[in-house]
Amino acid sequence: MLCLLGSIEAAPGPVLVPTHLQAELVLRCHQETSCDLCVRVTVQLAVHGHWEEPEDEEKSGEAAEPELKELRNASLQAQVVLSFQAYSTARCVLLEVQVPAARVQSGQAVGSLVFDCFEAALGAEVRIWSYTQPRYQKELNLMQQLPDCRGLEVRDSIQSCWVLPWLNVSTDGDSVHLVLNVSEEQHFGLLLYWNQVQGSLKPWWHRNLTGPQTITLNQTDLVPCLCIQMWPLEPDPVRTSICPFKEDPQAHRNVWRAARVQLLSTKSWRLDMPCSLPAEVMLCWQSPGGDPCQPLMPPLSPENVTVNKASEFPVVEGHPNLCVQVRKVRSWEKVQLQECLWSDSLGPLKDDVLLVETQGSQHNRSLCALEPTGCTPLPSRATTRAAHLGEQLLEDLQSGQCLKLWNGDLGALWACPVDKYVHRRWALVWLACLLLAAVLLFLLLLRKDRGKAAAGVRAALLLYSADNTAFESLVGSLATALSRLPLRVAVDLWSRRELSAQGPLAWLHAQRRQTLQERGVVVLLFSPGAVALCREWLQDGPPAPRAHGPHDAFAASLSCVLPDFLQGRASGRYVGACFDGLLALDAVPSLFRAAPLFSLPSQLRGFLSALQGPCAARFGRLEDSAEQVARALQPVLDSCFRPPPRGLGPELEAGLE
């Protein structure tokens, strides 16, 4: 029959339901030396529910009694479904069961049924489900790893074990050798695949081989769910599967190195991992001072995470200081992965204080400020920074100057900015320092020419067209990576409030004027939408589609940027760039090629050299800086294309040869 689970229904009276599921490995033999492996399934059954008495005995009358008595004296029937699944195999059977009326008592076991049996492959991992049709309760399930020929004492009775390829795994430094010990004339198939608990199996690569083989893998290719399946190339072969790296420490380290937390929207995210390992995730608060990220528990508790599946954040608003920590289940002593997902779209970490509000049993509210030493109650006489600013923080909370990040039955989380208080406290000190710096700078300018001033941090203004959220995320990643170099980066993603208040044209004009006055550089990031807008302004193409948001400054920037290119003033002021695979360099209009133009990340070294300029602070070794920026860009750029699973690597090809 077809494997159709169906939904749970209410029992109309006493029904039979499966209560226990058991599997047993047996041999089905045609002759003494000709046997096949088989899985015998035993299902324990019990009675669930009872007959309901009529609500109004007078209305039901004596006419209903014979009918009810007949139902109670009738035998109880059920249709029990057994579903058996293994790699490349799925089978469902329907068993009709009948129980005499004398044995029908609610909650009592009535016996068991035995299905003999499901044929299975050696070494396979099988999953068995049992439920009734219709279904009155949650189905029973069982997973079992079957032994291969090496684990069977009766392998001499299974002819396929006589010619099965034998596999040994050995390590040599950074390499892992799969040694297949078979005769020179034997042909066999070999499959490497990822055995994932959540979702279907994912084949990696498959080859038909001959004779003894030694296949070499890199240590970095090993993951716990990497399994190997072998079979002789003959009709209806027995396949042997082994997963030799389940408990390998290096394989587990490789999984966590490859794990990534991806922000899908402002409130949804996904943990991407090659294998479905049990993990827990929680939110934490990262202060800009370099202290460890502080878990927000309570009030937010850790939750089990489903790998490679979208999940929702329990937050109202995003904040650059909010980060995600992923750890192994029941192993909270070590953080496996931490990502501050909102930093790309909302800018670098802010000097904000997180206030934790908790609700008491009698609706009493208490507040504390999260600090590296713990949560400081407000108000407090402690000597911490939050304690000194306690009254001001409470006033800001009452006046609505704090941002609510989360609100629940247990309390709330608030992010309150404190930079204004720090600036006020040190105002006189800063003023004296600024006056001293101004005097020193004036004396220095008297001795040196303006054009040969001391090297400093160069300003960079990023202009782009907001084609879609994925491209905005890519631009945010580039801006964050560049800000970690000796560059002062300005991008409209980090100035939405000023952009809304001033308007795109006024904001862009002020930023461009300031950048060029400081001998900075304006970076034009070309995309298909940006090219369409440029051609529209140049009257060289159809009108660009108006899919840009109210904060998109690129359309407004063209009125300021185009005159510089038309009048030959672009050199030294502008740098152009596009992203590999999203736009080719020759698609950029020829007018804008008067400025240096690069494709990222393949030409990152030349791009960073152009941004560095002749008089700015050095980035260090350009190769190191380019690698740092490339590491930040590549995962976001890859998510724009969603590539298929990787194929056979060069090291593996070398091993096969």
UniProtKB/TrEMBL annotation:
<dbReference type="Pfam" id="PF15037">
    <property type="entry name" value="IL17_R_N"/>
</dbReference>
<keyword id="KW-0675">Receptor</keyword>
<dbReference type="GO" id="GO:0006954">
    <property type="term" value="P:inflammatory response"/>
</dbReference>
<keyword id="KW-0472">Membrane</keyword>
<keyword id="KW-0732">Signal</keyword>
<feature type="transmembrane region" description="Helical">
    <location>
        <begin position="426"/>
        <end position="446"/>
    </location>
</feature>
<keyword id="KW-0325">Glycoprotein</keyword>
<keyword id="KW-1133">Transmembrane helix</keyword>
<dbReference type="GO" id="GO:0005886">
    <property type="term" value="C:plasma membrane"/>
</dbReference>
<dbReference type="Pfam" id="PF08357">
    <property type="entry name" value="SEFIR"/>
</dbReference>
<feature type="domain" description="SEFIR">
    <location>
        <begin position="457"/>
        <end position="609"/>
    </location>
</feature>
<dbReference type="InterPro" id="IPR013568">
    <property type="entry name" value="SEFIR_dom"/>
</dbReference>
<dbReference type="GO" id="GO:0030368">
    <property type="term" value="F:interleukin-17 receptor activity"/>
</dbReference>
<dbReference type="InterPro" id="IPR027841">
    <property type="entry name" value="IL-17_rcpt_C/E_N"/>
</dbReference>
<keyword id="KW-1015">Disulfide bond</keyword>
<dbReference type="InterPro" id="IPR039465">
    <property type="entry name" value="IL-17_rcpt-like"/>
</dbReference>
<keyword id="KW-0812">Transmembrane</keyword>
<comment type="subunit">
    <text>Homodimer; disulfide-linked. Heterodimer with IL17RA. Heterodimerization with IL17RA is independent of the cytoplasmic tail. Associates with non-glycosylated IL17RA constitutively. Binding of IL17A and IL17F induces association with glycosylated IL17RA. Forms complexes with 2:1 binding stoichiometry: two receptor chains for one interleukin molecule. IL17A homodimer preferentially drives the formation of IL17RA-IL17RC heterodimeric receptor complex, whereas IL17F homodimer forms predominantly complexes with IL17RC homodimer.</text>
</comment>
<keyword id="KW-0395">Inflammatory response</keyword>
<protein>
    <recommendedName>
        <fullName>Interleukin-17 receptor C</fullName>
    </recommendedName>
</protein>
<keyword id="KW-1003">Cell membrane</keyword>
